[in-house]
Write a structure and sequence with these properties.
CATH class: Alpha Beta
Radius of gyration: 19 Å
Largest sheet: 11 strands, mixed
Number of strands: 15
Oligomer: single chain
CATH architecture: Alpha-Beta Complex
CATH topology: Spore Coat Polysaccharide Biosynthesis Protein SpsA, Chain A
CATH superfamily: Spore Coat Polysaccharide Biosynthesis Protein SpsA, Chain A
Structural class: alpha/beta
Number of helices: 11
Helix content: 25-40%
Number of domains: 1
Order of helices and strands: EEEHEHHHEHHEEHEEEEEEHHEEHH
Distance between the termini: 55 Å
């Protein structure tokens, strides 16, 4: 039985919805309270037992590379000042036993192309794909932990989904298929951003995937679809014709941090859960 040890983070997008903030800073480095989005995504993967983080970056994303690099000067300064707690936070950015790989996506040709760029680093084994824009909070097992458990049981590709209003179907890949067990269905149909009247169900694909390596050969043959890009959804639609693909409706709250409203909602709600800030921030909101 194989398990999931590698995760791909497609982070080459320009983040135009957050300009001018993202003119010089990667959108994945925008912070929710005191931690960048990309760090939340990396920690989710690590808690799921993943030890190789593969970042597919664009040429403007050096801040992501720097974030996961060793900060000698900062660590030395914190050590000299005996700021041990802060020093540990910096060191824990990449925990012991976890390695990072950075791959350049030379052209912005879509999510499917970004995943394909990671083929050499992934090799012939199943892997996760995590989109940091989708920040998912759980009190228990995180989203990727839940999906890894499904993969371990069925040894097949798994797509993370959630129920959305049908009027928003044109913002997502939408899936449908027969129910297998609670929260789990077989994927019979998957369509990228259909109009509401064409959506096969109310189950939308969000930024969590576990895929078998068969997806790579399929993506090489996938023609450009919606937006003139190589869509991962189209690749998965072809993949399900030759092997089983499951849709898992995860437990947890998703924040669409690719939008300003979702980003603000996440900031407020994470601040209300924060050890140091929750009480004072809650009081501030009451008196606002």
């Amino acid at each position: 039985m194989t398990t999931i040890k590698k995760a791909v983070f497609p982070v080459a997008g320009l983040g135009t919805r957050f300009l001018p903030a993202t003119k010089a800073v990667a959108k994945e480095m925008l912070a929710i309270v005191d931690k960048p989005l990309i760090q939340y995504a990396a920690e989710e993967a690590e808690k799921a037992g993943i030890d190789t983080l593969i970042f597919v970056v664009g040429r403007t994303k050096n801040s992501i590379i720097d974030h996961f690099d060793k900060a000698y000067e900062l660590e030395n300064e914190l050590a000299l000042r005996n700021k041990d707690a802060l020093l540990q936070i910096v060191k824990d950015t990449v925990p012991e036993g976890v390695s990072c790989v950075f791959i350049r996506q030379s052209e912005a040709l879509g999510l499917g192309h970004a995943v394909l760029c990671a083929e050499a680093a992934v090799g012939n084994e199943p892997f996760a794909v995590i989109l940091p824009d989708d920040l998912i909070h759980n009190e228990g097992d995180n989203c990727m932990q839940q999906m890894v458990a499904v993969y371990n049981k069925y040894q097949a590709s798994v797509i993370g989904t959630q129920t959305v209003n049908m009027s928003e179907s044109d913002k997502y890949g939408m899936v449908a298929g027969p129910k297998v067990e609670d929260r789990l269905a077989m994927v019979d149909e998957i369509i990228e951003k259909p109009a509401p009247e064409e959506a096969p169900s109310d189950q939308a694909v969000v930024g969590r995937y576990i895929l078998t390596p068969a997806i790579f050969d399929i993506l090489k043959r996938t023609e450009r679809g919606a937006g003139g890009e190589i869509q991962l959804t189209d690749g998965i639609a072809a993949l399900r014709k030759c092997e089983e693909v499951y849709a898992y409706s995860f437990e947890g709250t998703r924040y669409d941090c690719g939008s300003k409203m979702g980003y603000l909602q996440a900031t407020v709600e994470f601040a209300l859960r924060h050890e140091e800030l929750s009480e004072k921030f809650s009081e501030y909101l009451k008196n606002l």
